[in-house]
Specification:
single chain; 451 residues; alpha+beta; five-stranded mixed beta sheet; two-stranded antiparallel ribbon; 9 helices; rod-shaped
Amino acid sequence: MPMRLNFETRAKVGYAIVTLLLAIGMALSVHRLATAADEQIARLRAEENEITLVGRLRWRTELIVSDGRGYFLSGDPDLLAQVERSTRQFDVTIHELLATQAIGPLVADVERAVRDFLQVQAELVAARQHAWDVPLLARRFETELLPLRRRLDQALERLVEHKAAVLEDAYRAASARRNALALQLYGLLGALVLLGLGIAWYFTGLLHRSYRQEQEALAASRKALAARDEIMGIVAHDLRNPLSAITMKAALLRRRSESEKTRQQAESIENMTVRMERLIRGMLDVATIEAGKFSVTLAPCPVREILHETAAMFGPLASDRNVRFEQRADRPELAVLADRERVIQVLSNIVGNALKFTPADGQVTLTAEPRGAEVCFTVSDTGPGIPQEHLTHIFDRFWKNEMPGKKGTGLGLFIARGIVVAHGGRIWAESEPGRGAKFCFTLPAADTRGE
C-alpha cells in the first residue's frame, strides 16, 4: 500500500507539473500575442489616422481655393466666411498632422508649403477686402496661389506615398512577428508534448513493472491456493476412512454396552463423527469446485418429493426453534433435471441458514415455481436480513455473517453456488436489513430438457 500511494502521488505530481507548464506556456503565449496585436493595431491606426488627416488637408485646400476664387470674383461676404471657416479647419488639421509626426524632410516640405499657401491666401483675401483691382487679384490668384496649392498637393502626395510604404512595412512586420510568435508557440507546445510523453513513458514503465509484479504475485498465490486445495482434498479424502471406522466402532459400542454412561459417550462420538464427515465432504466439494472438476449426475426429479424431503429434514428443527416452516409448489407435476442428492444439499445449506438466523415466532418459506424452461426455488425468511454491501460476497468462499452465537465454516453458500452452476442454473440473494432475506436458484425443468 505505501508503494501504491507513492506511485499515485508521483503520477499526480508529474501530470500536475505537465498541466501547469502547459497552462503557463499557453498563458504567456496568449499574452504575447495579445500584446503584439495591441501594438500593431495602435501603430496601424496611427498611420491610417495620418493618412486620413492628409486627405482632410487636401479637401480643405480644395474648399479654400474654390471658395477663394468665388470671393475674388464676386466679393460675396458669405464666401469670405466660408473661406475663413475652411482656413481655420485647415489650420487645425495641419496642427494635428504635425503633432503626430516627427520632423523629417517630407513633413518639413509639407509645413513650408502650407505656410506659403496660407500666407499668400491671407494676402489676397486682405487685398480683396480693400477693394483692390479685381482682375489683378484674379491673375495673382492664378499665378501665385494655384502653384502653391499644387506644391502643397505634391508635398502631401509624397507624404501619403511615404505613409503607404510605412503602412505596408507595418503590415509585413506584423505578419512576420505573428509568424514568429506562432513558431514559438508551436515550439513550446512541442516541448510540452515531449515532456508529457517522457513522463507518460516513465509512468508506463512503472505501471508495467507493477503489473508484472502483480501478475507474478497472482500466479504465486494461485499456485499456493492450488497446492492448498490439493492438500486439503488429499487430507479430507484420507480422513474419511479412519472417520468411518470410528463411526462404526462408536455405533457398535453404543449397541453392546450395558452402561448408560458409556452408551451416551458413544452416541456423542457418533454425532461428532457425523459433523466431521459433513465438514470433510464440504472440503472435498470445495476442492473439486475450485479445480473445475465438479460434476453432477442428472435425472428427472419430481419437485414435490424434493420439497417433502427437505420439510421432513428441517421440520423438527423448526419446531424446536418455534419457527413456522412452510413449503409449497405452484404446480405439483413439476420436475427438474438434476442430481437429487446435490439439490437436497443446496436446500439444506440455504434452509439451514434461514432457520439459524430466523428468531422465534418467525417463518421460513420454501417455494418452487416454473419460469419458462426452468424451475425457480425460493427460500425466504423473516430474519434480520443481510446488509446491501454483503449481498455481492455471500457466495464467496469462507464468507460468514458474523453474528453472536452463529457459527459456520463459510463454505455452505459457496458449495451451493457451485452445485447450481454445475446444473446450468443461477443463484442469487435479495434482502433488506430488518425485512428478512430471500435466496433463489434455478434448475432446468425436466420436461423442457427432455424435448
